[in-house]
Design goal:
The complex is a heterodimer of chains A (about 140) and B (about 250).
Chain A lengths: L2 H18 L5 E9 L6 H12 L9 E7 L2 E4 L5 E3 H5 L4 H9 L4 H4 L10 E5 L3 E8 L1
Parallel strand pairs in A: 1-2
Antiparallel strand pairs in A: 1-6, 3-4, 3-5
Helix pairs in contact in A: 1-2
Chain B lengths: L4 H7 L3 E8 L7 H12 L5 E5 L7 H5 L7 E2 L3 E2 L2 E2 L2 E4 L2 H4 L8 H14 L5 E7 L6 H9 L3 E7 L3 H16 L4 E6 L9 H6 L4 E4 L6 H4 L3 H6 L1 H23 L1
Helix pairs in contact in B: 1-5, 2-11, 5-6
The chains are: A alpha+beta (about 140), B alpha/beta (about 250).
């Protein structure tokens, strides 16, 4: 349940934004979930709600999740591929490692066209806080 | 917005002292010193060891911790070996080569800093990679109250690179516990240069051929001439920490 740790970071970041923007009550957080990290939305939502209940300014907050599709680009041959292709090359242990640390993918995955280990995670890496709405 | 930096101070809130064992040069024995320092301190303190050498993690080989894994409890809880809580990128890469570029290095370090749940610690030792690249800059930027223990050998080649690290740390006003001379010769050719910088020369550690056979066996490491020499230097390190905390 490392989603709990990520939930803590989301609320800490939202709290900072709220302070900067003088928001007293948070109504909605939009959270982008990079496909590569395969975050369990149910667990993340549970953790966010449980943590929000302890913060007076977050008790009424709504959590909106958006999935960001992953894309990988080879630095050698410029080929791009998606999570569906990447997933085929990962075993269960490797997938779990990527769930915790998405960059672990660079230890296990090779470009599906030229076989190079030199590629970039260009989209859909992990968790980001997209918007904080409140009054 | 990346939420991870916002939680790092909370993750370090229950850690009294963070010591980054660093050097400008590779091959000077940073990992050996970081691991042995952690093992020595763990005899009387609550200690963690965090291997941040994402390209070439080796602390797990020194500790004999290759079969360990973190457990999940509201994040990742480091496994313990010889009374040391230990976290390493190797738990996720399984020792495979990880061809990471700069932003990948920063992302990996940020993720580990954000999700690792250290318990209450007296000391967290960071085993740093060589140089003044991403990992060093990330530690300076993200790890609160980090002190630096800088390692060199007597070689001019090592000291040349170490000088650059010291330049950066001093320019950024980072606290430097002192300089440790590994694989030392007598008399020390570097002591005067260190004193000229108004830094502390912590002492020297011998080149110890018996160390190789002790790798993977924490108790044996502590009984080697290297381990015993490092243990004798602990009061100098602890004195710095005591003085630093009384100035906070």
């Amino acid at each position: 349940m490392h989603e709990w740790a990520l939930a803590e970071s989301i609320l800490a970041a939202a709290e900072k934004t709220a302070t900067q923007e003088h928001l007293k009550t948070i109504k909605e957080l939009t959270i982008n979930l990079g496909e590569l990290q395969q975050i369990d939305r149910g667990i993340l939502r549970f953790a966010l709600k449980a943590l929000a209940d302890e913060h007076p300014s977050f008790t009424k907050a709504k959590f909106v999740f958006k999935t960001e599709k992953s894309q990988f680009t080879c630095n050698v041959c410029a080929h791009t591929w998606d999570y569906k292709d990447l997933k085929k090359t990962l075993g269960a242990t490797e997938a779990e490692a990527v769930h915790f640390i998405p960059e672990a993918a660079l230890a296990y995955v090779r470009c599906v066209r030229c076989g190079s280990p030199d590629f970039q995670i260009t989209k859909g890496r992990g968790v980001t806080l997209a918007t904080v709405k409140g009054t | 917005m990346d939420p991870r930096p916002s939680i790092i101070a909370t993750r370090f809130a229950r850690i009294k002292t963070v010591i980054a064992v660093a050097s400008g040069k590779g091959g000077v024995g940073k990992s050996m010193i970081a691991a042995t320092l952690a093992l020595s301190l763990a005899k009387n303190h609550r200690v963690g060891l965090f291997d941040l050498d994402v390209y070439g993690p080796s602390a797990h080989l020194i500790l004999g911790a290759s079969d360990l894994q973190p457990t999940e409890d509201k994040g990742l809880v480091p496994p313990r070996i010889s009374n040391v809580s230990f976290m390493s990128p190797v738990f996720f890469t399984q020792g495979r080569a990880s061809p990471l570029r700069g932003s990948d290095v920063t992302n990996m370090i940020l993720e580990l800093l954000a999700i690792t749940q250290w318990r209450k610690l007296d000391y967290l030792i960071l085993d740093m990679p060589p140089g003044i690249g991403d990992e060093t800059l990330d530690v300076i930027r993200f790890v609160p109250n980090c002190t630096f223990l800088v390692v060199t050998t007597p070689s001019k080649v090592a000291m040349g690179a170490v000088d650059k690290l010291l330049d950066i740390l001093q320019e950024l006003h980072r606290p430097i516990i002192g300089i440790l001379e590994n694989m030392a010769t007598e008399p020390s050719p570097i002591k005067d240069d260190i004193t000229k910088r108004s830094l502390r020369y912590l002492g020297s550690l011998p080149y110890d051929p018996s160390l190789e056979a002790a790798l993977g066996h924490p108790e044996k490491i502590l009984t080697t001439p290297f381990g015993q020499s490092l243990r004798r230097l602990l009061p100098a390190i602890e004195r710095y920490e005591t003085a630093a905390s009384s100035n906070k």
